[in-house]
């Protein structure tokens, strides 16, 4: 009788090759003998019949091998099926286990989801911003070029310097100048602000971008005075032209200049980021000065040219230029930076730091789940002992525990990806302007692969931990004792204790990082910027006054009307005007001349010589201000006077300086009445007399010390840029933005406006610090929560395990308070070890925060002490609950085994 | 001249075995005899190939085997058709008939 495979295996019957060949041989022998008999009947002799029968049968060895190979394949398939079946069985079993203890399953998967989610969210940003190549052909060949001044600071290029680089280097297949600016397009009488870039020939060759519609600039459009043609972004095409092909040839009006749309770039290929309009740089005059550092330069390295070689090439060309020109150029040397590095350089360390922090969080989550699993193993020791006793092998047991861990991790991973999706939205909502390439972010296959990899590794680690725990220990002892104790002895406590210590240590590192960032942030926010921040609104107006003779008059007239209307708004106390928004980085700085008197006229040829004379020059930030600017921002007047109505165009020109400049330029004497010339910035060579000194302000960057500054009178030197910033001070609380917008629109509708409170502007300026603080803080908080859970569960476990000992102590007369102390000491011991380790680790690692910290040392004792003390307090609280439970144990119940 | 079954198209032997077993359970020798008799001596089965086919078919679940006693009271392995084998026979026989008919038509028209 043929025995079914399953039954045979159940009784471990030999299904060996020997049996198979024996049966086959029997079969063959029967056949050959039957044949021989038949042949004998046909008249063959006994021997002949047998020989002929064998010959007719054919190759017996071959048949035997064939049948063995069939059987082997059959066995393999059966084995595989059986394994699959056991996996399914284990999955079902795991699901049953989780249904039996939903609390454990929920906490474990949630913990994993948190870890995986945080890590995946940050990784998706790292992937999109740092790892993914730029969306251009051979992006590794694209570089940004920089000049270097005598101190090695990066400098933008002046036109002739760029020309010298273009002719003096051989490493680049294309080079281009470009400059970004803001302009406004009038659309249905309503002005919209857009970012524009003026780009030279070769710009699109460097990027190797082709238009998706229309064409790029033709040579006749790249000439001085040529009619303005523009290439627009995909985004503008969609917004403004509704994706219509008729956009080509349409006219856009920017300011007063009509521009013809000739092409549309593909989506996502905008460079510089956010640009909507590209115009040909050649339509503007070239500036012959070697010190007008107005242009950024990108280039594409030729095939096979390394960044290093391009760098040496550029460096040599600029050094030659400096050698031939001497002081006429301030560009001493040059350097190249990969375009991607250039774009992401500032954010990259922050993102990697966050990735590290989220990784630490993931480790903490893993430790927590491992801890939970070990606790469950202790509870299930009984069940496992029984399973081993009835014949489950170690491998089978390990497989089952691995599958449980894998199931946990799979659910955790799915939850983590969902959390990551939500987290990414939050990340982007928090600060899109901070992260470059933000439009390219998404959860793609790389990110999913990352999440799955992370989850698979956690599954394997967790499963191995569980299997290792299950695989050790004396089973008979476990079975014998399991009626009386719930635990698996001291070894288990030691492992769980060490896991908690590691958790605590990593939590300390995260919390100290968050603490340092928080202290630094508080320092920043409590800094006195030197001007009023509350109740002040800044209206940024992009007024294009056109060009030519009437420019100043048009601008002044417009401004007068605006200021007058702003003053009329109820609640407004002062209205000032400036050229640059605070913290916008928009102010210029440069070298000014100190003249002996107002009537001195300097011939242009002597200017060079005077500039080289350090005794008669100074360096300052250039700002444009009206008299009420200082009143609106409450910048104190220290001596002299502010600008007044007498300071008009045509009147003797005046300037106000800040205290820093007064100290630096004229120490020990009054700067009032000194005469300076600052034509280097605005091209106006008229000398100005210093009439006042005002307090220092931190208008460039909150964290930077105030710079020496010169304020010129807005009426006398209206500047070249279209940006006007109207500072509207209120008596607090009054919502003036709506009223101001309405009032300003009555003056002109085609001027784009942007309103912000100074508080908003300050918040924007510290966005990266806030971003880091928030994320590291959240990570630290979650880590603390997990670590608290860890301490709580391990101490609870300890209490359960030592229940007998505690009961005996109580029976022998120990008081509740003694028992509580006994338990709490354990928790505090864990906390102290964890805190000590974490403190050391933080001491070694917080310096990575370096530049993010403002006037707080990376080893700030207050942050360290605060976090360590806080952690010990939390650990104390987490051990108190189990301690109370221990103190209330009924000794007789425990001792009876109840 | 009788043809060796190994010359036949691949799968021919399988369908012949299935057909043979559709009458009754048989041992290998009886199958060979039955096919040769039915083919009127036109086909000679290579015995080793027959047993290969039998074991292959058994592994595939088309036939099953058990040890029994032969007419002359000797231990022999009897093969019989399973339900799956019966279905396979129906399908393959139909295919074969169509195929043979097609070849036949071509040869006749030439």
Protein architecture, described:
The complex is a heterodimer of chains A (898) and B (110). Chain A has 898 residues and is α+β, with helices and mostly antiparallel strands. Chain A has 28 helices and 22 strands. In chain A, a hairpin with a 2-residue loop joins strand 3 and strand 4. By secondary structure, chain B is an alpha+beta fold. In chain B, a hairpin with a 5-residue loop joins strand 4 and strand 5. The longest helix of chain B is centred in the last third of the chain and has 27 residues. The interface between A and B is medium-sized, with 26 and 23 residues.
Percent helix among the residues of chain A?
Answer: 40-55%
Mean pLDDT of chain A: 83
Q: How is the biggest beta sheet of chain A arranged?
A: 11 strands, mixed
Which geometry of chain A do the CA atoms define? extended
**In DSSP terms, counting alpha (H) and pi (I) runs of 4 or more, how many helices of chain A?**
28
Give the helix tally of chain B: 4
Taken together, the total number of domains of chain B comes to 1
Rg over alpha carbons of chain B = 15 Å
Under CATH at level 1, the class of chain B stands as Mainly Alpha
In CATH terms, the superfamily of chain B is: Winged helix-like DNA-binding domain superfamily/Winged helix DNA-binding domain
Give the SSE order of chain B as H and E letters.
Answer: EHEHEHEEH
Q: What ranges of chain A have pLDDT less than 50 throughout 5 or more consecutive residues?
A: 8-14, 482-488
Q: How far apart, in Å, are the first and last alpha carbons of chain A?
A: 56 Å
